[in-house]
Amino acid sequence: MSNPLLSFSGLPRFARITAQHVEPAINHLLEDNRKQICALLEEVPEPDWFNFIEPMEELEDRLSRAWSPVSHLNAVMNSEEMRQAYNACLPGLSEYATEMGQNEALFRAYQIVAAHGSGLDTAQRKLLQNALREFRLSGVDLPAEKKQRFGEIASRLSEINARYEENLLDATNAWYKLIADESLLAGLPPSALELAAQTARQRGEEGWMLTLEFPSYLPVITYADRRELRREMYEAYATRASDQGPDAGKFDNSEIMEEILALRHEMAGLLGFANYAERSLATKMARSTEEVLAFLRDLAARAKKQGVAELAELRDFARDRHGVTELEAWDIPYYSEKLRQHRYSISQEELKPYFPETRVIPGMFEVIGRIFTVDIRESTETMETWHPDVRFYEIRDHSGVLLGQFYFDLYARPNKRGGAWMADAISRMKTRNKEQLPVAFMTCNFTPPVGDKPALLTHEEVQTLFHEFGHGLHHMLTQVDYPSISGISGVAWDAVELPSQFMENWCWEKEALVLFSGHYETGESLPEALYERMLAARNFQSAMQLLRQLEFSLFDFLVHLQYDPEQGGRIYKTLEAVRKEVAVTTLPSWNRFAHGFSHIFGGGYAAGYYSYKWAEVLSADAFSLFEEKGGFDRETGLSFRKNILEKGGSEDAMDLFVAFRGREPSIEALLRHSGIE
């Protein structure tokens, strides 16, 4: 077939996919899906699992397999041509999703299969239960005029969510600073200087180039001695895509954010919810908005006193040791790092030589192998990828059976979306007509190799890698055969972070660290004294960090819960109120954090950012069972794999947790791991 997006055998043909292929492929599949679904409804008078549900799963998976590489390329190799092709497809995809979700004949067919499902297994019943819920959340029960409005809202939201992300990416790419005098970069560690010099050379310049990509921004805000430089970069970063800062108004997300909140509220109202926060909880573990707020505020109350004390200690240190009487937002990371080094004689830079990518990656695979009884190896076959840095791996059980595959794209570069994530390339499926194994996209934005050195990771970046690989394991180790509930699909959103946050715990365990750490030049293991200092510093300013995450979570939830069409989004008024309630630091009035909060305005965490902390209760408690068993316990690892990773969204999240842990979750392990008294 001439269009590589319409070839569904094997892996995506990345070397052949161009922007010109996108619209024809997606439009063809949307039209063909419509025809085949109409035929199913007409020709199958008595729908059952095999003659109706399986064909529907196959049709939806085919569309997903075509769209997945397009969405991925738009995120990791963004270009004007790909962006235009991607955006051109969004209205059609949204219209199709709404049309299917509001198709009453299709809804009835699923109801019939569910009603006659005595012979179905647990996973099949869960799929049908989820599908019927999604029909209702798509407005299948609405009168015609409200259905039409629902569709208009869904289409517009898909468009402006994408525009929000584009503005943020463009604002990030637009700012840079070329420095000719190295003395102006005093305090920056050698690795940051080398990256800045390499960035300048790659762009045809001499000197040192700073950008707003995180591997460039973070060392400046943490280590640069020049306060003016820290402030300049902080302002550029904290005002991206807003009405403030060096590019004020150029990529402004202000109106988009207001419209997103208004449309979400209206959509929730059409479905009978009082607000979008209530709508969000329809697919989550939390049972009510009151429960979510009580959970967040309870954590804040436990951490607030300690957070105040941590900030007071930092102020005293900055004043007494460095003569600084007023700490600004761009000072806090800098003096916090000074205090960390003063107290523990340790820094992320000191740890980096012990975490070369060449040791971390195979070591992480060894850790995973010991916990879950699997083997991970780089593929010996040559695979088509989107960039020379990308590598391809396989995951097998100990008998050699292939379970899944994944792409690794680890380094930051221009025109690549910031952050780290796992995405679904191919979902596991097994029907009478088709069988396919799961494939994942694993994406990070680490500092690339500089010169002849391997990429050196901070310990925080190692945690990010383990986190994202937890999502990858959830996707690749699933044993559920139906794409809509395999892997992370169909998992309650406030439980989806359980495997990812669970994996982070291993970054601190000695028996795991010896496997993925070693000096990049000598191979020397992480010295015991350095490890002890690392452990001692683990919960440095932990209450301040927890309160920051609770600030994000409460803001997200309240800005959706309290939305009033008469008053608009009140975005920064809400954020200010939340900060007065839980924050211990003060940010400048021109800070525009929400303009870059892509998790909730561009991604899938709207009225759900609390999920990180909710799931961290689950993950900390799950890991505590390994602590009780003494670490790498094969039986416990296999139980986690069987009850959590393999089951995906095929059963209720709480039921799966109880099956693993033997009881419902307790918050005590989270507080202990976080150092909260």
Question: Please, could you describe this protein's structure?
Answer:
The protein is built from 26 helices and 9 strands. It is globular. Helix content is 56%, strand content 7%. The chain is of the alpha+beta class and 677 residues long. Strands 3-4-5-9-6 form a 5-stranded mixed β-sheet. It has a two-stranded antiparallel ribbon with strand order 1-2. A two-stranded antiparallel sheet has the order 7-8.
Sum this structure up briefly:
With 677 residues, the protein is of the alpha+beta class.
Question: How is this fold's topology laid out?
Answer:
Blueprint: H1 19-43, H2 49-76, H3 80-101, H4 104-115, H5 122-137, H6 144-174, E1 176-179, H7 190-202, E2 208-211, H8 214-223, H9 227-238, H10 254-270, H11 276-280, H12 289-322, H13 332-344, H14 348-351, H15 357-372, E3 374-378, E4 391-397, E5 402-411, E6 421-426, E7 429-430, E8 435-436, E9 439-446, H16 459-476, H17 498-504, H18 510-516, H19 528-536, H20 542-561, H21 571-582, H22 598-601, H23 611-629, H24 634-645, H25 653-661, H26 668-674
Parallel strand pairs: 5-9
Antiparallel strand pairs: 1-2, 3-4, 4-5, 6-9, 7-8
Helix pairs in contact: 1-2, 1-3, 3-6, 4-5, 6-10, 8-9, 12-20, 15-18, 16-17, 17-23, 20-21, 23-26, 24-25
